[in-house]
Amino acid sequence: MQLNDKFIENINRLLPSGDACALLHAIADESPVTAVRLNPNKGFKLPTELSRVPWCEAGVYLSERPQFTFDPNFHAGSYYVQDPSSMFIYHVIKSLIKHPVKYLDLCAAPGGKTTAALQALPQGSEVIANEIMPQRAQVLRENVIKWGADNCMVTCDNPKSLGAITGNFDVIATDVPCSGEGMFRKDDEAVAQWSPALVEQCASRQREILNAVWPALKPGGLLIYSTCTYNKHENEEMVDYIINYLGATVVEVPINSEWNITPAIGRDYACYRFMPHMTQGEGLFICVLRKNHCATTNLINEKRKDKKGTKNSTLPIPDELKKWINGNYFVGEANGIVTATPTHIKEHFNNQYKNLHIIKDFGTEMGLIKGKKIVPSHQLAMSANLATDSIATVEVDYPTAISYLRGEAICIEGPKGYVLIRFKGAVLGWANNLGTRANNLYPKPWRIMSTYVPNIPPSMS
User: Fold this and answer.
1) Which of the residues 129, 167, 229, 421 could staple to 178 if both were Cys, CB 3.0 to 4.6 A apart?
2) What is the pLDDT of residues 303-335, one digit of tens each?
3) Is 0.85 surpassed by the pTM of this model?
4) Which one is the CATH code of 319-446: 3.60.140.10, 2.40.300.10, 3.10.450.720, 3.30.1330.10?
5) Top-level class of domain 5-291
């Protein structure tokens, strides 16, 4: 890899000569590692001899990168492919958050840090995962649904809209857009686009984002600030800005010295730098700050128009549908769509989010009522609380699983009607078995588009 001369110069200024040379060598000449974080609610297991990510108990290093597209477990949400450095968010949350919280992941796509947070947060927490770019927000929505959590809302809004919900969140994670220096080994485009001007542009945008969302954080709440870059302009200097301008105090996260996490550069407060010549992962910077109780909130007092609500219908909900999900839920219907919302969210939920652009609400969409029938939803199939004992299921072989994930009609042996399609126990989705063939209900936007036909599953399966 050919690195920009200015970038090399910046790294040489940032680090002592020995470390600078080692980091540049790791970026230019070494391959990135591959790791996955297992979903504890899906029951998927990997060989025990594989190395574990030390700061995330569910993280596993793989010896090689398989073709994830052709692994049914990937589509079932059995694991999430995530850089091991980014899994540190799991350790941060586990170490600092001991009680249920309202958690905002502001720049959440594609969903790695969101699903890690859903895995690490105490039971009873509520999560809003936001992404400002509509196309990326749809990817975020897909990954949250596949993860199967019902305590997560996905929104597509700008930071100012969320900042207007003053004092609502106990924790805000801001994995802000950055110059991407830490992704050079994985992203050739990041290498090509990098320039000193981009660094300055990103730093300016990061301040705008922080200013906009800061009012939404409760006094005493935690801000988790992170980037995937190395320079101090977007890292330590941004932490200085949060401390001195917004009003916050750095919070220390306990770490093991054997993890080889690099401390802050030129500062005496606790920041955590992941450098690929020191740790098995890509470049990451993270710092946790607590909002001062006397900090300014920069209140946004602009008038906002309420969105017009849709008229709800009052269709009867089939009793059998309520048996398809385990747990304490409020099962309700609006415009023919039946949703199961956790009772702890439903009981105190109010209208603070009514002006947001919500693309996935709290709870699990269970299905659509059509006359006397119910068409089950893919969200229900992906739910961690799916009551599989109450639903007809059909186990399929690998070629049939791939055909199903491509959206093709399949032939299966099983009862007529709506059935769950499973591969080695992993739920892939619904099909309507007509006897001679089965109509495929796998979501069209999520289908495998590749025409390549693998003979056997990748090694992950």
Assistant:
1) 229
2) 334 444 444 455 667 777 778 899 889 988 888
3) yes
4) 3.10.450.720
5) alpha beta
